[in-house]
Amino acid sequence: MGLFKKKSVTLMLEQSKKKQLEKTLGAFDLTLLGIGAVIGTGVLVLTGLVAARDAGPAVILSFMLAAIVCGFAALCYAEFASTIPASGSVYTYAYATIGEFAAHTMGWTLLSVYVLTTSAVANGWSAYFNNFLGGFGLAIPKEFVTIPSQGGTVNLPAICITLAITWLLSRGTKESKKVNNFMVLVKLVVIGLFIVVGAFYVKPENWTPFMPYGLEGVIAGGAAVFFAFLGFDALSTSAEEVKNPQRDLPIGIISSLVICTIIYVAVCLVMTGMVPYTELNVAEAMAYVLHSVGQDAVAGVIAVGAIIGIMAVIFAYVYASTRILFAMSRDGLLPAMFSKTNASGVPTFSTWITGAGSAFIAGFVDLKELANLANIGALLTFAVIGLAVILFRKSHPDLQRGFRVPFVPVLPIISVACCVFLMVNLPGTTWLYFSVWVLLGVIVYFGYSRKHSVLQENNEIPLKKAN
């Protein structure tokens, strides 16, 4: 059946060798890109919200739970990225192992994950930016930083920053990666400052009760903060722009996740130790706890760092979503305009359509809703990549791999089970909205993609083995 027609690995490798996208990224750039994508709204915004609403001081356990699940998925990503260095992430991997319909569904899901994450991050950036301006008596009127459902008109700063980052990306990867690396380094310095200063104000009694909402709260918190770890997967969308993908991609994926997990745990310990967890139900939690202990100057520095650092997250996700559009368009599953590049090798139309869509959503939709929708999509893609690794080992056992997942199929099966478990713990409304998006994707596939698929037109026979 055409729905299960697979794209040959040989063709994917040939496409990745074509220099349609300029190869400018190394292991260091990838690690910073991963940290830039992961460390952002999760540590600067969600840590406080989840501690207050779901887990209390046990939010560190929520982060550890999410990190373990992400770690399993990261190993699967590393194997695929080092074996098939082609743009598209899970979309590409599903195309090689499960078939075209599954690949289209994964690509469609990834688009929602990246666009919604961009919007949610821009939403969080707006809170820090307005708080920073407020320190100078220049706060933006509430109606222009608040979405309609919360009594405002539009979150204007969120729209503006998304469009500004989109413009930067449209200039080219080589130029924009320098700005991204700077933003990530600033963010790491600021987080380090928070940990060092905040540690002097930690009161162990604030960690009691440690688990006020019980194990159920920790698990619910794990499902919520899963959003905070999204980003390392975005690295696999950059495969065709990496100088040595077989070596550098596994390094970038795994190292960025490990570094980010350590940072999250340290920040959560300090934050919940500085003030009672019940006070952390604010969007700019790091700045808030520093103000509460009289460290206004440091809080100001943190706010500036957050403003700069969160922009790196927006950068990473707009970048990733454009590469998904590029890959799907190149395969005929979306119109050709999405894969056209300019003289600098940038898919300009995809970049601007993604940025504009993300900006619109950021201006009008609640951050918590955006985070949950991004979570369910990401969990689904992580489950699929675990399944894909098992299938790929069977279909291409002799293919050279730069990295191999240990204990296959046991570890990928555990990864799939963990993802499904966390998905079940997400709200019913999230499932409803996500189902509507998937249904829309199915309509697009049967209405356009299947008819224009390059694979279907060429009637390509998938290879059982590629060397």
UniProtKB/TrEMBL annotation:
Spans through the membrane: 27-52, 58-78, 90-116, 152-170, 182-201, 213-232, 253-277, 297-320, 341-364, 370-392, 404-424, 430-448
Entry keyword set: Membrane, Transmembrane, Transmembrane helix, Transport
Major place of residence: membrane
Listed InterPro entries: AA/rel_permease1
Protein topology in the membrane: Multi-pass membrane protein
Localization annotation: Membrane
Pfam families, sorted: AA_permease_2
Domain of life of the source: Bacteria
Protein name: Amino acid permease
Organism the protein comes from: Ectobacillus antri
